[in-house]
Write a structure and sequence with these properties.
Double Stranded RNA Binding Domain; hpI Integrase, Chain A; single chain; about 450 residues; 4-stranded antiparallel beta sheet; alpha+beta; DNA polymerase, domain 1; 3-stranded antiparallel beta sheet
Length: about 450
């Protein structure tokens, strides 16, 4: 697990190190600023910190002055001699698509954004490079380039048929986000040229439905349509109990059952669950702190979930055999047949030798892994493997079904929408509308009662 190291000193500037990448952090006129130094030696980072202190002191003494239109970070990065407007314009004209990507990811790859977000952006840029080319001058980007990308991608095959307009929109948003960031840092000028870009119409996502409803509809429809329906399934309370009992009997990992119980009884997202620490569970108050990353841009926020009696018992039992560390759900240091935590490493898949001796030639003992939080892939794969053989539960696609089901259970009991929003962290009306549904029999009884 990546660890950020903060070095503080008596100087005005400080250094942060994460996986060998250094950032310099300082305050100027009451505001916090920082910039990325890259993978440099500690001594080089200390030298930059001392330089920042020097310039801040000279500015405080009014011995230096920041030119009009120049920000403090640019001023310090250029040793008090920011580039002229003419040179800046030349640099803007020569900036390529790949250079913009690399600059953006270098700044935001230090914990500012979630790993899943960064992975998605990297994938989006692969598609942009395929369309425009790695050396495309970003300053020359026009609406016609964007429309060409939209049209090209719309004809390509995705996971479920053709690439959806929603996916293409996300790729446009990624490039627009980098563009807007580039304008703030003086790398680009002008507005992102997406005005007038046209997309194919998107189908509204199907409403959330029970297992029984979906099974009645899937006969005779395509695999793509069936997959979209299973994405919208939610479980009734008795079904949740049935599934949890199955997981308890068949889970290969001791953390999986308590983790699924946590998801089912809090409605938390997978990414939120794997970040929960033991100290976030307050057994005395009967609450759980959920650490968010999505509610407020650029700010880590929290919300509180209720520790139900059932979940309390499950977590107490899990903590009695917890392998150690501060993360609530974690993998042991050694896991049989695991690519990441197995006893040995170096096993080859493609092009491996035909003899046992040849196959073992590249195998060596693995250094013991430190205790830490689960990866999202570990959490997902063990859930899928546990449910795969079940004729019913094998159709479930991931952890989000427990969030759907949790909210449905609250709505079915008539819980106030404001309370639901507070518990699960909903922000927009579109989110609320997609989740705002009741069990079919509840709706039917309500309507039928009006005509009795």
């Amino acid at each position: 697990m990546a660890v950020a190291l903060l070095i503080r000193s008596t100087h005005m500037a400080s250094l942060q190190e994460r996986n060998g990448v250094w950032n310099c952090v300082f305050r100027y006129q009451g505001k916090r600023h920082w910039y990325n130094l890259g993978e440099v030696k500690a001594s080089e980072a200390e030298a930059v910190s001392a330089k920042v202190d020097y310039f801040l002191l000279r500015l405080k003494q009014n011995l230096l002055e920041i030119p009009a239109g120049c920000d403090i970070v640019t001023f310090i990065q250029h040793d008090g001699k920011p580039p002229s407007e003419k040179l800046k314009q030349a640099q803007q004209r020569s900036l390529t698509l790949v250079e913009l990507r690399d600059k953006y990811l270098a700044v935001h790859g230090n914990g500012t954004l979630e790993d899943t977000t960064l992975a998605g952006m990297r994938q989006h840029f692969k598609h942009w490079i395929s369309t425009l080319g790695a050396g495309h001058l970003i300053s020359s980007l026009a609406m016609a380039d964007l429309q060409g990308h939209v049209d090209r991608r719309a004809k390509m095959k995705g996971i479920r048929g053709l690439v959806s307009p929603a996916t293409i929109r996300k790729e446009i948003i990624t490039l627009r986000t980098c563009w807007n960031w580039g304008t703030q840092f003086g790398l680009l000028n002008g507005k992102f040229p997406n005005k007038g870009v046209r997309y194919a119409k998107m189908d509204e996502k199907p409403p959330f439905q029970t297992f029984a409803e979906i099974e009645r509809k899937i006969a005779g429809i395509s695999k793509k349509q069936a997959a979209e329906l299973w994405d919208s399934v939610y479980l009734t309370v008795p079904e949740i109990s049935e599934l949890l009992a199955y997981v308890k009997r068949h889970a290969a990992m001791p953390w999986l059952y308590p983790m699924i119980c946590f998801a089912a009884y809090t409605g938390a997202r997978r990414s939120e669950i794997i970040r929960v620490k033991i100290s976030d569970v307050d057994f005395a108050a009967g609450t759980i702190q959920i650490n968010e990353k999505k509610r407020v841009r650029g700010q880590r926020t929290t919300r509180r979930a209720t520790l139900t009696p059932f979940l309390r018992t499950v977590l107490e039992e899990w903590l009695s055999v917890h392998p150690g560390g501060d993360v609530l759900f974690c993998q042991g240091t050694e896991v049989a047949r695991s690519k990441k935590r197995g006893k040995t490493t170096g096993h080859k898949g493609n092009g491996r030798a035909t003899t046992l001796q040849g196959r073992l030639a590249t195998v060596k003992a693995r250094m013991q892994q430190a205790l830490g939080q689960l990866t999202r892939n570990e959490a997902h794969n063990h859930l899928k493997d546990t449910l795969a053989e079940h004729v019913k539960w094998g159709k479930l696609r991931g952890y989000h079904v427990f969030r759907h089901s949790f909210i449905s259970a609250l709505a079915n009991k008539g819980v106030d929408q404001r309370i639901i929003d507070d518990i699960v962290g909903h922000q927009t009306e579109s989110m609320r509308r997609r989740y705002r549904h009741l069990y079919p029999e509840v709706k039917a009884n309500a309507v039928n009662s009006a005509f009795e």
